[in-house]
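INPUT
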Amino acid sequence: QVQLVQSGGEVKKPGASVRVSCKATGYPLNTYGIIWVRQAPGQGLEWMGWISAYNGDTNYAQKFQGRVAMTTDTPTNTAYLELRSLRSDDTAVYYCARDIPGYDNDYWGQGTLVIVSS
Amino acid sequence: EVVLTQSPATLSLSPGERATLSCRASQNVGSYLAWYQQKPGQAPRLLISDASNRATDIPARFSGSGSGTDFTLSISSLEPEDFAVYYCQQRSNWPRITFGQGTRLEIK
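OUTPUT
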């Protein structure tokens, strides 16, 4: 069955970078896209961006432009989110979700907590 | 950017009652509106696609309606497991999706 399994939690210092992975099982990652969504403590869901695992096209939310990178690795069926120049307000749970054009996001990873603290 | 405004922010009801949650879009999103349920410590779960289509394995007590700018999620008779936070999401300008701020459904 389809699953998205994310990497474990991270603690980072301000100014550092973090990379979160999202491994897909049950389907070939390169047939669809992946979105990344984050949720700060006690807050709502925030879309960060999208990547086509088919051709690598990306579309990032304006607020993350310049310090975010989304990539995929076909041989390992894994998507990655890198966020640079971390600030305390980047502390959040980061989710990946499968994205099929014309459909809503039916499968989500379990979430990865990233804590940014000095 | 399409802004989604959900109301109320918090809804207090008892098991067995009917819940009605609202989502209003800042511009016409057609039927490209979904509803998600999120419980503490869990990822969002897709409930309703395209405004009114229940996702796989979603109980019939959940229903969605609306089009354009005004949408409603209804839960006909609340079960204890339905108390959670609900988010609407639009994909009319995919891939640049947006979420509403959420409605917390709590036990009265």
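end of record. The radius of gyration of chain A is 13 Å.
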